[in-house]
Each structure stands twice: as C-alpha cells, then as structure tokens.
TrEMBL record, chains A, B:
Protein species of origin: Rhamnella rubrinervis
Name used for this protein in its record: GTP cyclohydrolase 1
UniProt key word Metal-binding: yes
Similarity remark: Belongs to the GTP cyclohydrolase I family.
UniProt-recorded Gene Ontology molecular function terms: GTP binding; GTP cyclohydrolase I activity; zinc ion binding
Quaternary structure (record): Homodimer.
One record GO biological process: tetrahydrofolate biosynthetic process
Domain (GTP cyclohydrolase I): residue spans on this chain: 35-187, 275-454
GO cellular component: cytoplasm
Cited function: GTP cyclohydrolase 1 is the first enzyme in the biosynthetic pathway leading to folic acid.
Top-rank EC class of the record's enzyme: hydrolase
Keywords: GTP-binding, Hydrolase, Metal-binding, Nucleotide-binding, Tetrahydrobiopterin biosynthesis, Zinc
Keyword Metal-binding in annotation: yes
The protein's Enzyme Commission number: 3.5.4.16
Amino acid sequence: MGALDEGHFIAELENGMKLDSIELSSEEEPATTAIEDAVKVLLHGLGEDINREGLRKTPLRVAKAFREGTKGYRQKVKDIVQGALFPEAGLENTVGHAGGAGGLVVVRDIDLFSYCESCLLPFQVKCHVGYVPSGLRVVGLSKLSRVADVFAKRLQEPNRLANEVCSALHHGIMPAGVAVVLQCLHIHFPDLESAFLDPSHQAWVKALVCSGSGVFENEHADVWDDFLGLLKFRGINKDSTVMRHSSDQSWCPARSCSGAKTSTIVESINPGMITAVASIISSLGEDPLRKELIGTPGRFVKWLLNFQNTNMDMKLNPVHLNPDVEISFKKKQMQSELNLSFWSQCEHHLLPFHGVVHIGYFCTENLSTIRKSLLQSIVHFYGFKLQVQERLTRQIAETVSSLLGRDVMVVVEANHTCMISRGIEKCGSNTATIAALGQYSTDPVARATFLQSIPNTSISQL
Amino acid sequence: MGALDEGHFIAELENGMKLDSIELSSEEEPATTAIEDAVKVLLHGLGEDINREGLRKTPLRVAKAFREGTKGYRQKVKDIVQGALFPEAGLENTVGHAGGAGGLVVVRDIDLFSYCESCLLPFQVKCHVGYVPSGLRVVGLSKLSRVADVFAKRLQEPNRLANEVCSALHHGIMPAGVAVVLQCLHIHFPDLESAFLDPSHQAWVKALVCSGSGVFENEHADVWDDFLGLLKFRGINKDSTVMRHSSDQSWCPARSCSGAKTSTIVESINPGMITAVASIISSLGEDPLRKELIGTPGRFVKWLLNFQNTNMDMKLNPVHLNPDVEISFKKKQMQSELNLSFWSQCEHHLLPFHGVVHIGYFCTENLSTIRKSLLQSIVHFYGFKLQVQERLTRQIAETVSSLLGRDVMVVVEANHTCMISRGIEKCGSNTATIAALGQYSTDPVARATFLQSIPNTSISQL
C-alpha cells in the first residue's frame, strides 16, 4: 500500500499538462526543430513552395502534431497510477466475484487514436479495459483511460498496443488480472490509379484485438465471458474475438502492396525524402532501424507522393459534353451527383481529410453516365493535392461551372484527421463547405432543394 | 492581413498546453489552494472525515477540475485565431455564395462541456459553427472548435455561451457572418424525496440555442436555411430552432424549484458552506455577486446536501419479505430486476455519476412488486452518498444478499461526469462493474444468462 503515499506526483500529473510542456519547451525543442527541417525537405520533394502562405507554418504544425501524437514516449505509467490507488474492501475473500476489490471493473468505449508504425498515419481506437482488483485496492477509473493513452500516443500496431496497455496496467495496479479489447480503424487511402479505377474502394481497414493478464491470461477463462458479456452492448461478441492472439502484421494497407512494386517505387524516389522521414522517427524517440520501422519512411513518402504538386494533368475531355451542343429549346432541369468520394491531404498538417462531394447543376438530361465519371475525375483531380477544404470546394465549383454551365452548387462533407489527432481530439466532428454559383447563388429554393436531396447518412457511413 | 504576421503566438498556443501550465504552477497557485480550503469546508459540512483515504486528495482534485473546467477565463481568442488565418481566394466577389473566401464553412458535432452558472454542475454541449469568409481569409478549421471551447470553459448558460462564441469568432475572423447552434444537455438530479417517489424522473434537461452575426444577424436570412440545411443531417430542422432568441433563464433544473422552498432550505444550512462556494467562484475569476451567480452557492450546497453522510436511515422492512418464510419446497428460480436507476456522487471529484443497476437473484416467485420497490430503495440508499462505483456495487450486493438469499449478482452501468469534464474528456466512455455472490460466483452459465438478459440499450438511453 506504499503507493498510496506517493502523492507528490498527483499534483503535476492530475491533468497531464505540466510535464509535457516543460519537456516541449526545454530540452526537447531540438527534436521539434529537427522534424521541422525534415518536413521542409518533404515539401520540397513534393514540388511545393515552402514559403507559400498556407505552407509557411506547416513544418512547425507537423512537428507539433507528431510530438503531441507520440508524447507517450515521454510519459510513465507509474506516475499516473500511483496516487490514484484507493483502498476498497471486497465482498468476499475470493478473487474475481465481489464488488469493490474483487469484482470486475470495466471502462468501455474510450476513444483514442494512435500512429501506425508502418505508415505514420493516425488510426482510431475504441478501447475497452477491464480488471479484477485484488489486494483491497482499486484504481481511479479515469486512470485506465490515461494509461491506455500513454501507449496509444506512440508508433503502434494494434496487437502490441493491446499487449502494452494490458501489461502496464497489470504492473501498475497489481490486480488479479487485466483485459483489453481494442477496435481499431485505419484509413485506407487509394493510390492515384485505384482511386480512378475502383469506385467501390473501401475507406477503412478494421482490426479487433485482445490481450489479457492474470485471471485473463487463459483466453478460455470464464472471466473473459463476463467481460465480453458486458461488451456485447457495444457490438462485440465472443465469436468475433478469434483475432485475440492473431499476429497478423499486415493490417496497415500500405504494407499489403506487393513488396516488389513498393520497392521499385521507393527506389525511384528522392532519397533525401526517405532520410527526412527516418530523422522524424528518430526525433520522436524511436529507432528507425527497429524491425517494424525499416520500411516506414518509404511507405510514408510513397503515400505523400500521391499529393505531388505536378502529379496529375487533368485529362478532362470537353468533347464528351459540349455545352454549346446542349443549348437547345429543352428546358434545363436540376441534376445532381451525390456522394462522389474524395481523398485529400490537409496542407496545414500533412494529414488526410476525406469524405464526399455533392454537385448540383442545371442541364438537359442526357449523357449522365459520362457526366458522373467526369465529375468524379474532377473531384479526384483537385483532391490529390495539398489542399484546404474551402479551396477544394471552390476549385470543383469553378471547373464544373466551366464545363456544365454557370449554375452549379457544390457541397463537400469531410472528416479531417487533424481534427481528431491534434490536441483538440474532437472525434465526432466533421466539416461541410458550400459553393453556389449562378442560379444557386440567387435562389434559396434551389439551394434548399439541393441540400434536401443529400442523404442524411452521407458522412456517417465513411 | 496584418494578423498573418503575428505568428509568435502559434508556437505556444498550437497545443494549448504551455500557457495553462505556467499559470497553474505560478501565480495561480493561490487560487487552487483557496478552492481546496473551500472544499474541505464542504466535506466537513457533509459530515465526512476529510482524512479518510478516499477523500484525502479530493480537495486538490476538485480544485484542479474546477480550474481546468474554467480555464477559458485565462485564454484569449486573439491568441488562438491570429496566426491561423490563411489567404484563400473566393470564387466570385459576391459574399456568401462561393467556395474559399465567400462560401459557407461549417464544422458540425463538436463535443464540448461547460459549467452551469446556476448550479456549478457540468453540462454537455454539441456545438455546430458556421461562418462565411470575407476579405479573402479563412481560418484553420480546428480554431472554430478551440474558440468555442474558450467560452465553454467558463460558468455559462446556453444562450450566453452561443452569443459569446459567435461574437468572439466574428471579431476574431472578421468574416461576413458567424452562426452558432448549440444542443445542450444538463443533468437533472432528483432530490432525495423525488428519487423515491417519481420513478419516471427525466434525467436530462435539453436546450437548443442559436446565435448569429453579420449575414446571420437576421434570423430569417436565407443563409440560415443553408446552415440549418447542412445540420439537418444531425437531427436539427428549422422548425425546432424557435428558441433561437429565447431568453429562458430557467433551463437549470436547480432554478426551477420554487423560490420559497429553496430559500427555506438554504436558510437552514451551514452558512460556512455557502461562503465556501462563493469563495470557489471568486477563485475561478468570477464575481460571486454577478446577478446570475447570486443564488448559485445556495443551489450547489443544497444539491451537495443530498449526499450528506447521515442523510438517510435505510428503512428496509424485512417483514415484507422474510426469507425464512419463503424457504419452501418450491424450486427457486432465477429472477432479476433490470434498469433500476441510481444517482450518486463521485467522492474523488465531487461530480455526479449516474446510471442503472441490474440485480439478479434466485427466489420463489411471489411478492415481486414489493421486491422491486425494495431493491430500488436499496439502490437509492447507497447511491445518495459520496461514493465510488466499485463500493456501490459491493454494498448493493451485500444488502440484497442479506435480504433475498446468498445467490446475488449485481451489475452497475454508469456515466461518470468526471470522465467527461476532467482533462481526459472521454465523452463516449462509460463504466460497468460486477459483483457475483453464491451460485453466481461459481456458475459461469448463471452469470452469462443474467448478463444476456440485460438490454443493449440500458446505458445509451441515459
């Protein structure tokens, strides 16, 4: 029970702020500067002007995001748990079946995010933690979430994350056992070609992993049934936990590319960019030569190069649909293409944002198949760049207007990774932007009609 | 465009950590100490031993939670917005109908919490912000959330919160207009009597408020239709925004008690407790004599006194159901009472936690009406205290076991305000605890059968 006396940590750690900022502002500053320099190399490699207004502070933002997103390397579980262990009598002397010390305690649905060690993109985690107290001690409930976050805020892979959280809680609380279930969601960016060729591309890769210690070490132990019985409310049942001890290393979609193809591409890219990413990894406190990290710089650069400034020449063929030809005596009707998927890269943070584009226009009714693929091409063209959503919206509207006539309305709905993986961590938030031209700009009824045609589910399905 | 040059703020403000911790660790320390002292007075007034292990650090935790929850008083919008304004060309020179500068930009579903100025309890906020850029400038999307949070982290009331966020963004960004819609949710604690007498007590009070500036100032402007059109996806339609300019001051359930009754109660309570709460309000940087805050200390103390140590003598009448009488030759069957509501107060943070209790037991089948009200009484008895969920679970199991026989299983599912309104802000998370006695502790099938009988929706409906 000596841990209860070490309360001097709690003052600094209760809100987790002080230690971080001390580190960031003193001896860790060189790490931030090194990442900034590396990001400048990457921006150069993308053909960007690093003095462009929108990019000027991007290196600093990226450095801070990476440091913030990996602050777990600089946090200690002991500091969090000690001072938050409380004496609490159990009901019986048996372990595992009583309230207080003894009964199973579960915190469900903790939203976290982590960084994929294979590609450096953030992935989302829904974390469920359970433990069976012993030694007449329980831990403050919020500490389960804080400890999980320490390991999430590192370069990770779902199985290791689950194991590290489990092991750290076991050693920190010394309970009868700890169980961890993670539902992980990794964005699956299409590359440029497949974005055009495969409209049914799946945006997410999912993984469900578990880890257990003590009374949970045996995956067939009854106490797992109790734990998973409580999680059934959250859409998990025991049958789907077959991955519990899966050592599947290829959950990251960047790894599932054929090795040959990847290495060819990697060989053809600027070695300075690869070195820059390796230096970012070092600056985060990791060893770029760790087995799992060796291919990471190549994968990150390959992904980044999707957004190269000069990557794509838009091949929009106006022959397919010549507005002059269509000006007939037929009355033009309101048309729309909804839920055109887009993929883009936030130029402020070098983090993905993606979602759907809805386009309304007035046109006589023909050639609609060609029109849909044309509009999807326009959306991809402006998506695969360093972007901001407002500009993307405007550029799509301008281009569509030049092709399909002046009455155009564009709505872009997006999830921004930077909104969940930066300091603010607003997981549920999403963004919508509108551009309205011609009749749409002057006629509220036309706008309302178009907005009402957009399905409610357009963004939540992403 | 001079704002773009003031980048020296961004380094410190990008993750919002440094300034806070500097303040907390130096000149603001006296404020924290003053709150700690006040909390000790309150704990004494509740008849608690402030040296009890579970309470020893409660004054510090409460002080830090209050300071953290009101840090908006010590933040400046200018610092957040400046350095995050980006030049972005609009499509046309008209305001409000083009992408980039000109087109409507909306961030939806930002989860915030705030503190009610009438009762000092936290309330939840789902925040939607829109603005129409002008002057060829857009603001970084995450800043809309950060600015909203500055005003949420104060003692607030929904209408004022919406107006302050709107006004601050308007002055910070200088756009064509700003619109703010807030969906607010305030916990409605029953007092001791009504908890027993009114089983259909509604746990939440809701408020929907809006505020607009510039092109949104006229609530009938078309641009409101565009904004609300985008929000329709989130369950809001224009018809339900009639409260837009409502000046309803009584949304806080603590205010809706009849004035006479409240003042009688307030007169009867320890004036030292009232003074202590007033000193907390001062320490947060507010004026306890501000009109809206005058009755707050009395309301907070009245609510706190629900959890007085010696408040309630359990009047469980074992005559109603004598276990000896029931021991017959009839085979006992598994019985359960699900979704018994409970209300409690986290002794670590002096913040509410509440949810449902499910009780399984073996019994012959009779007297079930009496049994349900008896079990609900037991749940309330142990709920209306300074508690921890683990102990609550154990105490209910012990008491039920002494009345209904040794085979008892208790599951408590709860939402902890401290999990959303402390630093970790895990809005979606919730907690489950189990105690299993007698047959339930040895028979996994009995446990699984009981767990399966608990409806999926038991916690999400809260």
